[in-house]
Amino acid sequence: MPNCIAALDDILSLAALNPAPRDQVQIAGTDPVLASNFFIGTAGSAAIAATGLAAANLWQEKTGRVQSVSIDVRRAAMAMRSDRFVHRDGEKIHGWDPVSGIYQAKDGRWVQLHCNYPHHRDRTVALLGAAPEKESVAAAIAEWDAEALETAVTEADSIAGMVRTPEEWAAHPQSSAVDSLPLFEIIKIGDSDPQPMPDGDRPLSGIRVADVTRVIAGPMCGRTLAEHGAQVMRISGPGLAFSEALVIDTGYGKIAAEIDLASETGKETMRDLIKSSDVFSQGYRPGTIANRGFSPEEMAAIRPGIVCVSLCAFSHAGPWQHKRGFDSIVQCCSGLVHEHSEGRGEPPIHLPAQCLDYVTGYLGAFGAMEALRRRATEGGSWLVRVSLVQTAHWLKRLGRFGPSEDARDLPDPGLSDVMDLTMETESPFGTIRHLAPAVTLSETPPFWASPPVPLASHAPAWPA
Question: Which of 224, 330, 394, 414 stands the most exposed, by the fewest C-beta atoms within 10 Å?
Fold first, then answer.
């Protein structure tokens, strides 16, 4: 079993940082916590502890004072499935479309459709010639071979992933491309004078974050920065589909605005916003935002000293870099679902958490904070790159429980099992029961200064 501190040190070494001081960072507990042979709690605790240590480092940069960082593996594992515990006014909020799921194809192989957004669902059922109902879709898929369907759905600008074995994935050119990448990258992309961290009573006080993301990984990056004091603006586009459950669960500590990047007026509004921002986080496929005139290099010219965070599904390299994907799709394609389900009957099932999303989001926040520290000490504009598939490869490298210690029969925790980890927040959506911040800092405990708010509820300008 991997040591959680060793996993944390792996993250720190990639950022050219020293190993975690053993008298400053504490991680209690061990896997298994969730029903999986993968070390989900270990991965989560290492990534979350890294964000806590990055916040502590910024605090030390500002004040000269050292503070301790602690987390336990149970709390970290539950943070990997934060979306499953969200309740509004006592009722669970559901976010999955009935058509989404894993289906058996004509060749006996399995393929997942991701139809949680109406435009993806409509494109997929139109391709299949099916009704938007599970039974009709299943019958249509039974006429396709799995890989042919995956290709056809992708070419129709929708989302599907065939359940591959680890060996099949290892032989895939996208896997080879990902193997050439580290878990994450922090790259200097421009020069500027050092910019000290702003004054304030929290590690990220005075830091402004433009959060141009949706779903889980990207919004979690922004939410994590908010819990350490950053001012975060979630920016959506007109007509863009969002999951209300995820808007709520990833929206703590944020204001929300709308900018139309398809219009020149919207682009000018975004440029004005960037000029007074410190971090720009975007979660779209490589090139999508850049094609609107907002590549990292262009933003560094607009705002020298900007920290750009780029999150995507299949990385910025390889033949699948432009393929649409979400956590569950990457799990299927990369062999995780096959390994998790092997010997357990059919159909195959996902891991008991969308841990690729959450770990990637926390790593993005860690990278952003480390880049801010470098900006304060050496100056420059910075690019942080993370992806779900790079996280998947790292999760595999952490190892698994062996056959003699199979952890897949552990119970699936519900809200009643984690009430001690939750809090209530009054919001425009109602009374929200949700997980509290997972990490503890001794001097600047993380918290969200405001509740989640509906999309486009604020003007696209920073409050005075």
Answer: 414
| Confidence band, pLDDT 50/70/90 cuts, at residue 405 | confident
Q: Distances from the Cα of 400 to the Cαs of 21, 331, 336, in angstroms?
A: 27, 15, 11
Instruction: Give the separation between CA 375 and CA 93, rounded to whole angstroms.
Output: 40
Identify which of 101, 81, 2, 76 has the alpha carbon closest to the alpha carbon of residue 395: 2
pLDDT tens digits, residue range 123-137?
999 999 999 999 999
Q: Which of 3, 146, 37 is nearest to 401 (CA)?
A: 37
Q: Which residues pair with 402 in a beta bridge?
A: none
3-state secondary structure string across 26-95: EEECCCCCCCCCECHHHHHHHHHHHHHHHHHHHHHHHHCCCCCEEEEHHHHHHHCCHHHHCEECCEECCC
DSSP 260: -
How many other C-beta atoms lie within 10 A of the C-beta of residue 107? 13
- SS3 of 334, please? coil
Which tens digits make up the pLDDT trace of 244-290?
A: 999 999 999 999 999 999 999 999 999 999 999 999 999 999 999 99
Paired tokens of 14: 């990639």
**pLDDT-above-90 percentage for the chain:** 93
Q: Does pLDDT of 316 surpass 90? A: yes
Write down the pTM of the prediction.
0.97
Q: What are residue 249's phi and psi, to 5 degrees? A: -70, -25
Q: At what angle do helices 355-378 and 217-227 cross, to 10 degrees?
A: 50
Mean pLDDT of 433-459: 98
The residue behind tokens 């304060």 is 376
β-strands 381-387, 307-312 pairing: parallel
313-344 residues labelled b (16+ CB within 10 A) or e (exposed): bbbbbbebbebbbbbbbbbbbbbbbbbbbeee
Identity of the residue numbered 48: I
- Looking at every residue in the chain, the average pLDDT score rounds to 96
pLDDT score recorded for residue 262:
94
